[in-house]
Every structure is written in C-alpha cells, then in structure tokens.
Amino acid sequence: MDIEEILSGLEGDERDLVAWLADMNEDDALALANRMLFEDTKDPLRVLELCRMAMDIVGKRFEEGEYFLPELVLAGEMLDQVGAIAKPLLADGEGGGAKKLGRVLVGTVHGDLHDIGKNIVSFMLDINGYEVRDIGIDVPVATFIDEVRSFKPDVVALSGFLTLAFDSMKETVEAFEREGLRSQFKIMVGGGQIDEAVRAYTGADAFGVNAVEAVNLCNRWLRVAA
Q1: What is the pLDDT of residues 27-57, one digit of tens each?
Q2: What architecture does CATH give domain 3-92?
Q3: What is the pTM of this model?
Q4: What is the spatial distance between Cα 22 and Cα 165, in angstroms, rounded to a whole number?
Q5: What DSSP designation does 129 have?
Q6: Fold assignment, 103-221
Q7: Beta strand pairing status for 103-108 and 131-134?
C-alpha cells in the first residue's frame, strides 16, 4: 500500500479528511466530518470508508516507525468519534430491524490493535440482518476457539491492518483446523493490505476489501436473496 496512492484518488474535502485524520489533526478533522455529514449530507458510508483509508495510512506509518502506540490510540479515538456520528445516520436509511440471517463472529487478531475497520464491518453486518458478536482487538487464538464453540457462528471474520497480523490470522485458522472446527463455518479476512495472496497464505475462504464486500460475502455464503 502506498500512502500517496491512497490520497491521489481523492479530492477536496475527502482528501482533507483522510489527510487530517492520518496526521492527527483532530480538531479540523472532526469539524470537517461533521460538516460533510450534516451540511453537505455526504453518504455516511462514504465517510466511514474515508476513515478506513486514514487508518490504512496510520497503520503504514506505525509499521515504518513514524508512529507509535500513542498515535494508534489517538487515531482510534478520532475515528470512533466520527463513527459515533456517522453510524446512526446510516442506520436510519438501512432498515436495522431486519430478521437475523445468520451468526458472524468478528475480531481483530492478536498483535493488532486496530478496530475501525472491524467496527464498520460489525455495524454493516448488524444493520443488514446478521447477529454479530464482536470480540474486540488483539484477540488470542484460544479466545477465538472458545467463542466459536459458544457462539456457533456461520462466518468468522478475522481483522487486521498490520502485516504482522497475517501470521496471526494463519495461526488462528490452523487452530480451527486442529480443533476440528474448520468445516463448521466460513472464514473471511479483511484489513488495509489484505489481498488474494494473503487470503491464500492464511487459509481463509475469502477476503473483503470493505464492509459492503463483507456483507456480500455473507449473503453469498448463506444464500441470502439480494
């Protein structure tokens, strides 16, 4: 992932929002997000996608040693604030009272503290009719095993933004195999730098590039009519 490549596809307020969030410019970023949502009536899902792009940049800077844990925490706090504003607006138009279509277990794998992408996926699955259990960030393999046994999901969604998360995802999938659980559900992986090569490495069934794709995968796997 290249930072300039992310920004090059954006213009105006969208570019400013991503850049300001990634640069920890909290006051300007939150003010702009509010204006985009309430004055410009920007699609809340698009604003959340811009937040995910900003976290991609933050994750890259963390891996390169430019950012450290305090920056990750601040970025998460800013993105949570934007999400808290945007999500209710999205729910108003998405019909959140849909019948539950299946169970999805969602968590960020151990060694990774990112949660904005996971939170967006959890929210989108919920308002599209799925029963979601979000077990948080930095989740150990043993916890995934326990949660699978108790929740009995149809789909397990493993999230991670840092490249070190790829090994954690692989380790988690292999643990499902060892415990004889792998055949009981589908596995999707998602995060800023995940592609088909990473999907194959981890042993997951599919990867999703955004929250809409995560919903589409669940719909396809569970044969939900469009």
Answers
A1: 999 999 999 999 998 888 889 888 878 877 8
A2: Orthogonal Bundle (1.10)
A3: 0.69
A4: 20
A5: T
A6: Rossmann fold (3.40.50)
A7: parallel
